[in-house]
Structures are given as C-alpha cells and as structure tokens.
Amino acid sequence: MPLGYTAGATLVLQRPFTATVTFTSVNSGTNFPSGSVVVVAVCWYVGTTGQGPTTVTIGGVTATQIFSAHDANVGVAFYYAVMPSAETDTVVLTDNTSSWNDVTIAAAILTGAASTPTDNGSNITDPADPQGLATGINLPTGGVGIAANCVTNQSSTNVPTWVTTGNSAITASGGDITSSEGSGHFTQLTLAHSTTANAAWVPQVNGSPAYSFTSVFGAITWAASAGGGGSALASIAIPRKMFLPPKRKFYLR
pTM for the whole thing? Predict the structure, then answer.
C-alpha cells in the first residue's frame, strides 16, 4: 500500500494559562485509523522562556518528540504516535510551567508509513524572507515531507506563500491559522507537505506582507512502510512429473 497523507484540522487555543491543554476533533470528529501514524506540529508563544510542551498524547497514546526548537518567545515542535487501534481524535499537551499565551496545533494522518521518521531539521530564521531550513533533509522516493512555520507578532492579514520552485516543490495542506492574544500580536502556524523525492529537500515559505519577526521553522520526512507500494507474488506449486525409462526393444535372430 503506498503512503497516504491526510491533513487533519488546524486548531488554536488562545491564552490557556493552564498546565493541560486538550484539542478535540483533530481529525474532524473521526477516529484516527488503526495502524496510522499521526503527526502533530505544535506552535506556541510565551512571554518569558520559550518553553514548549513537556508531554504530548495523541489519541491517548504517549507521543514521541521528533524535535523542538524555539527562541525566547516562540517555538515549534513535531510529535508522532502510531495508533494501536482506531483512537479518538484528541491531542493533549502538558506544560508544567503553565507559561503559554497562545498554543496552535496542526495534524497529519499517515497511512502505509514506516513507524519512525526518515529525517528532520529545524531552523530559527531571521525576519528576512524566505523562512526555511538552512540545510536540506532527505525526502525518500515514495515518502512525504511535512514542513511547519511558526511566527508571532505578525499582522492578522499576513498570508504565507510556500515556495513551489526548484527542489522545494510543496503543497499547502491543513491550511494555516492565525491566533490573536488580544494585546495586538498574532501567532501563526502554517503547514505544508511534499511528495517529490529529494536527497536535500529545502522547504521554504514567504510572508505576504513579508515576515518582519523571527520565525521558527521545522520539517520532517517519512518513508513508506517496507511492505508498501506493491503486493507479494503468489507461489505456485508445480508437481514433479514421473518419467519411466524407455522400453527396450528385443529382436529375434
């Protein structure tokens, strides 16, 4: 079975100020499929330390962190979990410091995927566009790459545009969402993906108007499962034939 990519919902929770934040209907109210890999990008803004989630569960399953990167105020991280059965489409974040102002997540559901990611990278970029990785990562043939950009202090009208030239062929997926803290700043998470194989994949995004504050950018890639992309050949049993020695002919003299 080839690798399948389904964009989940992009959800925002503003100014939680709680140690536990629960997102529901991450797959629009449909259970995460059994055996699927659910990938969640988390974007957060805090007023002090840049601290991200301490634990994450996806569908009730403890998630594995792929990476986490942040500056003093804004950060982005990727988490994933393999669903042992059809699980409720919830994501729960725990932050022991309760320091978040804004928290936004975006999800992707992978089917026919390997159980662990292939490669990943992150970059804290300066305000100059484009925002993206500093070093390419490996996007294998038949796999998928997922990129996320988290930026704060932007205008609510800022529209992200993913680069679609060169080796960064990429499609916006899961939409993008802008949240307001209520004090004039906005935190934005945008997610995109690509299925174009590249040994040095460099996804990038531009802001319109151009981004004017630091972004935290991250990307991961995933390969199809080892058994994906084809079916096994059927074995056919062929019985052996029994051969008798030729009959001898006798002649009378």
Answer: 0.83
